[in-house]
Amino acid sequence: MTDQLDAKVNDLSLKSEADPAAVEDDDQIVNPWEVVSKSEKGVDYDKLIKRFGSTRIDQALLDRFEKVTGHKPHHMLRRGIFFSQRDVHFILNCYETKKPFFLYTGRGPSSDAMHLGHLIPFLFTKWLQEVFDVPLVIQMTDDEKFLWKDLKVEEALRLTYENAKDIIALGFDVDKTFIFSDMEYIGSCPAFYRNMLKVQKCVTFNQVKGIFGFGDSDCIGKISFPAIQAAPSFSNSFPGIFGEKDTGKIPCLIPCAIDQDPYFRMTRDVAPRLGYPKPALIHSTFFPALQGAQSKMSASDPTSSIFLTDTQKQIKTKINKYAFSGGGTSVEEHREKGGNCEVDVSYQYLTFFLEDDEKLEQIRQDYSSGKLLTGEIKKELVTILQQLVAKHQERRKDVTLEVVKSYMTPRPLNEKKDK
């Protein structure tokens, strides 16, 4: 993996300096299509915050979140998995003063089944929906995957419906959730298309190349796609939800991985010129591949991923065979020196999925001291993931095409209840 990363970084270093989306620095590459790092500890998020100009989530924001909402921050917030933000204080102001806002997130359907890494923004978004009790729109960018992948239109659309089943199985409130396929919705909603055009007119070809690193050989569909991902940030792109009149002033909060930030930096730059509020964002770290934090889990590499369709045996085998260990090379060395939780994939996965803070801290102490062996921490993780995936598979069985259509039909979504 290190040799492959070196080759990628060296190749990118030959590109123009005006290609910031592709060239991060000598040690890592982070853009909407690729995440790799030379460091065993993974991506340097402090560098990303500085480069992207976002703000790290601090204890003051967590305290305010709890005070305003009455809810203890989600464990992914407390542990710094969601670590960076733009204008979340503004969204809390809206909640505090009972002004409307909505949530927006998305999924690019490129495989029949989602993997654990895909779950992270959706699990967190579901919690936000429950806490704030506001509408949520979920964009399925089947058009993006058609443009970037070797997919036929029909296949990209089929994957949208398969992935929508995975998302619905997480338990989103059907009365407050609208899931839409770009291929299906845009053609039926002139308001959405008009917002796309407005964004396209505000952003030059040179700007898009600079932000996203597009080259002369990229198809024109890729050049225009960022405007499609920007449009759901504006509430009047959804007249079926928010109504026809003067609804463009309703702001949104976008939970997403930080590699999606370039889309919304562009959107935040354009929004004031269109008379719309800037979208607020809350960024997550990347869910590491089984082989280590040098790259994120990818649907294109089955050995790097645990899919929601994996059997109990497959989950156990993948963790035991592929999950990178921060433990010693022998039992004796591990007992003496302990394990390195910063690079151990099993421990890192537990920070995402083990909600019990005290138990997680005990595991950290025991593994770091050498009391807990690599096989034992992997066994702990296997049990948690097997339960998570089995529960999801059981729920997904109940998600019929009729259920999917109930989420994907444009309709008014329930207003926030008085607290």
TrEMBL record:
UniProt KW Manganese keyword: no
EC id: 6.1.1.2
Keywords linked to the UniProt accession: Aminoacyl-tRNA synthetase, ATP-binding, Cytoplasm, Ligase, Nucleotide-binding, Protein biosynthesis
Location (main, coarse): cytoplasm
Annotated signal peptide: none
Enzyme class per UniProt: ligase
Keyword Signal set for record: no
Subcellular location: Cytoplasm
CDD domains (alphabetical): TrpRS_core
Gene3D superfamilies membership: HUPs, Tyrosyl-Transfer RNA Synthetase
Name of protein: Tryptophan--tRNA ligase, cytoplasmic
GO cellular component: cytoplasm
GO molecular function annotations of the record: ATP binding; tryptophan-tRNA ligase activity
GO biological process: tryptophanyl-tRNA aminoacylation
Family: Belongs to the class-I aminoacyl-tRNA synthetase family.
Membrane-crossing segments per the record: none
NCBIfam families: trpS (TIGR00233)
